[in-house]
Each structure stands twice: as structure tokens, then as C-alpha cells.
Amino acid sequence: MSMFGDLFEEEEEITTNSITQGKGKVCEPPPPRGKLKLCGIRNQGSTCYLNSLLQTLLHTPEFREELFSLGPEELGKLEDKDKPDAKVRVIPLELQNLFARLLLLDEQTTTTTALTESFGWTNNEEMAQQDVQELNRILFSALESSLVGTSDSSLIRRLYHGTLINNITCNECHNVSEREEDFLDLTVCVRGVCSLEEALWSMFVEEEVFDENNLYHCSNCDRLVHATKSAKLRKLPTFLTVSLLRFSFDFEKCERFKETRRYSFPLSINLRPFCEQSDQPDSELTYELFSIIIHKGGCYGGHYHAYIKDIDHLGHWELPEDDIKQKKQKVQVKPPSMSVCNAAVEKDDPLSVLTAVLAQESGSVLLDQLGQKLMEKIGCSWNKKYRKQYGPIRKFLQSNPDVFVLLLNGSRVALRNPAETPEQGAGPKSVAESAQDGSEAGSDSGLEAEPVSGHWFDLNDSTVTVIRESDIIKQYEGKESAYMLFYRKHTLQRPCHAVGNPAYGVPAHLLQMVEEENAKLQQRRTEFEVSSNSIDVRLHFGSHYRVESGALKLINTHTNAHTLTLSFDRRRTVGDLRLAVYQMQDTWEGDMALTIAKNLPAGLHLYDTLTDDQQSLYSAGVYNGSDLFVWNGTEVNGVRVQTGAECEPLLLNILRPGGVELDSVGMADVESVGEASVADASGLVQVMRGFSGGVTLGGVREALSLQEALVCQLTKGVGPGGEGGGASRWKVCSSEAMRRTLKELTLRDGDTLLLLPHTHLNNSIFSVSEDVVTVMTPSDCRWLQVEFHTHTTQEEEEEEKVMKIPAAGSTLLSEVKQRALVEMQLQEHFTGGVCCLRQRDRTGKLLPPVREDLSVCDAGIKLMTSLCLCPGHAPNSSQLFLFFSVTPPTGPELEIIVEETLTVKECLMAMLQEAGLDGTCWHLRRMDWCEEVGEPLMDENASLLEMGVVNGDTLVITEGQLPPKGFLKLAVSWFMDMSDECERNHTTESHTTGLQSVGCVEISEEATLHELRC
């Protein structure tokens, strides 16, 4: 194993069954078997080599049936394994249980945890990835030891063991020295040969000559002589296992390497040329390939999976999707240009692509797996193709609630139009009944006639896929290539009752065990379906509401009788829900309408009415937490209600001069009560009021009984509290704008409108210039407070001076500073006048100095606020004031003023000099919004302006050099998961993980994961 171990080994389904739901929800059960009907094996972290070998043994029918023939009377019972006097053979029992589950349990995947524990593998180190050839010998040795004393103790020897004979013949006396060897598998050379037949020929046909410096000592001649050495197969096993020596050692480079050159092997092979006795018929010497264990990766790590022939036709094979498309294209003649165009349009539309991906699934999909399925569909990731335009995939799904629905706290996603649910009450079939069900061929053009010898499948841990026999050629060479070959005798025939029947040969007690587990699984799935489809809807009854300011508002806010939360199955129809509500409302008379509602800042608003009683709630857009308004469909307490998105009410801030009365009908909370109380220094009073989105701006003015007033909107980027300098500018709405609706004007909740009667124009507060109204601050509020804190010794108290300096919006800040120095008598305190004005934030931290060449208004400083007089220069228009620090921290945060045209490298050098640091092994990083060290400034030759560094930013000096352009520097850690240990020990400790740093890697950003691993 390399230092990266199995870091890159993907295991998507390990956590599938551990997803828990929120309060009151049921844990998700494992999904049932897919249409291929074969079961995968979950990877425990690095057990892909074990999974591949176990699948091969399972699909060796003769081995499987021999194992099942051993009953509890010989093997014992697992429940007795802890009894001191009990004789329990744990390994074969666990293997029987595993095989029974793989054959008959209605799960997509099963686990090998119990089996590996029977091996004594109880920690991560013992389960670390091993060589599958060595595991084959270890597993068979353990089985042989476990079966000693049983009726089938020779199981492994009868099926897998063979013998070969090594002969050395003296060329002088012709004496033959013979040595017989037992073998479990044949280890053949890959280097220097191009096929399995060639390797066997060199082993069992060609002779090795002992001559010259390599003479043989003949016991008969009692001296060194010329001799020849040869080998032959004497006894052939029922199943021939061939191990390919893919890994070699380069003595020049002193390192291991993997042979990836082409190495072919036949589907059927006649071993007559390699056998000692050739008088047997060809049928006894012919073997057929039925399993290939494949290694993907290098000699220091990788991944195993297996190509296996389905000899008993237990799986359901159909053409791969790509082959089906090719067949359809051959049968259906379409204009090529149209097909290409349509395909391009669909691929560019994420809505149609995601819909197509989810439509292929039988139910919901884990959100974490949706991205992988999308990549398999279009060959490109979401982030690369769609993120820039559509944002993260979760955000896109949430923005299309009419198409997608997020389930289980957002961990799964499904199409909003659900598939038909199974009939209620349909219990699980027995294992025997399920086993007799044949594959339904139907009229699917993707099916092919089942060959006599069986189709091939790729069993890759949890994933099972179909492959063609022709795909085997791909495993002749490359980094993903054949590693072990399994052949079976051609004469082996399967009984007709075994074909398509996974229960064949399974003992009754194991059938019963799996039937009970299937019944529990079915019950869990039923409970989960009910739980996951149960939604809570809030019913709002119209009799408790009134229409006010374009929205629905409660008549009595001190009671909860207006709403009722109802739990309901989203698969049921609108008619079912309507009937349930009818039955709850005994006093209801007349028609009942159910309308989707939403609480907005202005109040409750109605959208679509559910009219199709046959439509499911799921399809109608009713989801968990939905609000439904129960009414007659026309009016609420005698007032007609406007519905739909175009009539959504808006809650607006209405400003008016003090002394101007508004229509009080429907008025919300008023910030200033009475004319003596004002909301701000300009004397403007603010109220909040809701209006229908379909009303015009002129309608708003009429509703407020100010028909002749100017309606003004705040200019962009200026808040209602006034811009810098205490003045605010408002744009007068044109006559055309007065005829447009609030929706057309794109107003939003919280926007502010100023209503200014003509009687208030051109006074000391309000002035009009063309279509702009300026609201000025009164003269008694035109000042800035300047503070100065003297820094004395620790024994003396800090002295503070505060002075109000008269200022207007047009006053230059340099004038404010100079006047403060004079009036506070601080000219001598600052030698040469090197001081500046700075604001403080809410925490008291000093902000960057303000530019003194700007006016109060242009600098964005509000009147009646405070400025601090501090030592130091103020930046000019081409300079940036920056905060910076060193990580790890070595002192307080520092400050510096630099030219914005400086490069990142020059800025770094200036900061290092300011901080008193030496060396060149440093780089700059930004401080993000949550005050954590963020991304580095990668291009050190770019200017600060080009890198988006602005005045007041905080940069962090970090140790370490940046990688060259186009390269990445990645920190690599070893991940250790101790959750399995806790589970095996039945402890209640929380899930614990550990990360152990193993260093950094510098690699091209164009490199693949495989290149990173190597």
C-alpha cells in the first residue's frame, strides 16, 4: 500500500442505509433489488478484493451447493458459538448465510461484516487491502480447516486442487527424477509473453536445459551432468484458477511496476498439450472461462471488481443502454441534423437532463449521488456545465418546486409526479415463490435471447451492471486489466431445476431465515413509504380572516382557532383531502374551495385553487408545510379576493412630512405617533402599509388620500435615513410610472416611497430640481463629533477630548480635521500635522482613514456621527489602506498604506518589511467575511487593483511559497474511521474519525485523480 492507501476508492452506497430522518420519521430501509436481480456487496473500506472473490464463489454453482449440503448437525448453529462446549464451525456457517442473502434477500446490496469477523478481522489494519491471489489461498485454507471432521471435508481438494509433475532427465544415464506438486492455482508469467496459451506452453511443453555453467547433479551418476527439465499437469481440478503475475520488479529503478501490455486469454481452452496423460477425451480436458477478477490501478493500490458469467441464469440481462440507442438509430430513420439539434438542446437544459435522470430511477435519489448520475448521463459534472449560470444543484432543485421535491430534510430528491404505488396489503412473496418467478421478457427491444451458457455481469462492490462477452477483450491490457481467471470443466452440466431458480439447493432453515428478513424489510419499506409520504398542511379557515390592504389578515390575533394542522398522505387525491376537511367542519354550508396560500410580510395571499379532485396532492404542488385556505372560492366576509402571483401584496414604507395626515384605513404600525414625534432629523414620519401588487402607483396615492402629492422613490444606493452629509435624494415618479402597477415597477417588500404635498415644496427642508427632490437636514443637526484619546503611561488615566465641529454635506473633511485641531488645541501634539480622521464600527474597531480631499457627502459620512482623530496619514485617491496580520499570529494587527498599482509581490515585500520579517517563503491570503484565512492571491505579478483588493481589506501573511502557475498545492491526510469499532463493541460512543497529515503534494491542475494518486 502507498501512503495514500485506498484514498481514491469510491464507495457511494456505504452510507445509503444509515440515513436517519427528522423527528417522527422512520429510518430509510435498504432499497430492493434492481431489475438485474443480482445483489452487490458493500465495501467495508478496502474489501473490494474480498467482494470479488466471494461473488466468484457464489456464482460457482457446484461449490455453492456443496457448501449448502452441510447442515447444522455437522456445522452447528451460530447462536451456540459462545457456549463453551458447543462445536460451531463459524466460517462455513457465515458463508452459508452470506450466500443465502446474496441469492434471496430482497436488497440491492448486503454486507460481509459477520463473515470478516469470523476470520478474526476486527480492525481497519486487518481489513486493509490485500492481494486477491493470496486471499484465495487463505480463504480456502480456512475453509478446509473448518470442514475437518465433516462429511465434506475434502470439498476444496475435490473442486480446486490439482497436481503437476516436475521431471529432470539425465542426458547420460537417462535417469528421471520426478517430483509431484499440489496446486490450488496456476501462477503464470505475463512479462515476455502475449497470451495465456503461450505462457502455459512455456511452462508445460518447452524444456529447460542444464548445460555449461548450469549443470545438474545426477544422483545415479553422482556427478554434474547435462540434463533437461520439464513439467506436466497430472491431475486437473474441476475448477482451474489461473493467477496472472501482473506485478514485477525493476532492478534498475529498484521499484515495483505493473505489466499493462496486451495479454490475451481464451473463453475456452483445451489443456491436452499440457497434460501428462493425453488419452482422455477432449471434453474432459476442455475448460470454459466463467469469472475474471480485474485489478484497476497500480502496484501500490487500486480497486478490484469481477466479470462473472451467470451460469444458472439467476440475473436478468438486457442490452446496455448505449447498445439499445444504437439499435433504435439503425431501425428508425430520422433526419440526422434534427437528431443532433434536439440532443444538443436537451443537454444544455439542466431541467430536462435532471428530469430524465430521475425518471430512470424507481424512487427518490440521494442528493449526493445525483451529481454522479448526471455525469454518467451527459459526461460532464454539474459544476463544470451548469453552476456558473444556474448556481449550485440544490439551489436549482429548490427553484423548480413544480418539477422536483426534496425529501427527508433535503437529503433525497424525486420528481414531483410520483410513480404508481403498489396495492395496499400486498405482502412479500415467499423465497420459494420469488425464486420461481422467471425474467419477464415482454416486448422490450433491449432484451436478447438467453444463451445456453449464460450472460456476463460486472459485479463491482455494490454496483451490478450488464456487459457483453466482447467487453472481456478490454481487460487484456491497460491499468484496468485481468488479474485472476477462473475456468470450469466443459463437462459440468446444470440440472434444469437450477436454471433461473436462486433457491435451488438452499436448505430449508436458510430459506426460512431469508423469508423472515424479507418480511421485516417489506414492513420497514411500507412504514417508510407511509412516513416519507406523510405531510403536514396548515388549514386556514376563511371565517377568521378579513381583506385589508390587498391581503388577508386575522380578525382576532389572540386565538389559534383560525388554523388547523392536518397530517395527510401526499399520494392521496385532492378530493380525499376535501372530503376530510368537510368531515371536520360540521357547520360548513355550500361549496368548499381549497387554495394554496402563502404568508407574506403584508399578510396571507392566495394563489392556485385545487380544482381537480382526481389529482394527487403531490402532483398538485402540495408539500410538507403548505398553507391551504378553506373558503367558498369567491369572497371572504363579503369582500372579493384577488388571487395569483400578479396580485401578491407588498408591504411598503410610506414617508410623509410631519403634519400631513394619511388615510388611516388599514394602517399598520406607525413609528411616530402624533405630529410632534418624527422618525428622523428631517421631520419625516414613517408608516408601514400593504398594497396589492396589481394596484398602480396612482392607486397607492389615492388610497392614502394624497391625490396631488408627488410620489418619489429613493435614488439607487441611498438609504431612507439619508446619504452622506445628512441629505437624501428622491426621484419623482413620472406620469407614466404612476399608471404602472407595483409589480411592473418591480417594487419589493420593504421599499420606501415618499409622498410630498405641493405645500411642502421649496422650503428649507425640501427642494425640487427637475425630477429630483432633495431632503436636507435641519441646520441645528449639521455637525460632526470629533473625538481624541491621549495615550499616556499606565499610571496615568487616559484623557479624552470631544468636540462638535460644524459641518454640512459640502464641507471638506480636511477642513473638519483642521478646525478640530484648532478648537481642541492639538496642533503641537501632532508634529507636522500627521493625523487623520477615522470612524469606528459597532465593536469599537477603527475603520480605515477617510480621504480628506472628499466632502462629507461624497465620503458617505452621515452628520451627527463621530470621527476619531488618530495619528497617521490619510490615503489619497490612488492609495489603499490595508490591514494585515501574520499567521500564526505573532502580534497585533498591523496597518499599511500602499499604491493600488503595486503588484501582490511588491505589497507582500512592503508588509514583510513593516512586520520585521525576513525570507521569501511567504504569500498573501485574504481574510474572508467570517474573519477566517481565505483563498491565496495566486497571481503575484498582478496589481492589487486587478486582484480586486479594495480599501479596508484585511490580508494575511502566510508561510509557504505558492505553487507555479497552473499547479495546485494540496494537503493530504489519512482518514481513519473508528465507527465500525464502536458498532462491533456495542458501545454508545459517538461517531469518531481522525485525520493524520501525510504531507503536501504539488501537481498540475490538469492532472487526473489517478496521476495524483501515483
From TrEMBL:
Keywords: Hydrolase. Signal peptide: none annotated. InterPro entries: Papain-like_cys_pep_sf, Peptidase_C19, Peptidase_C19_UCH, UBL_USP40, USP, USP_CS. The keyword Hydrolase applies. The keyword Hydrolase applies. Residues 39-490 form the USP domain. GO terms for biological process: protein deubiquitination. Residues 418-454 are annotated as: Disordered. PANTHER family: UBIQUITIN CARBOXYL-TERMINAL HYDROLASE, UBIQUITIN CARBOXYL-TERMINAL HYDROLASE 40. This is Ubiquitin carboxyl-terminal hydrolase 40 isoform X2. It comes from Ictalurus punctatus (Channel catfish). The gene is usp40.
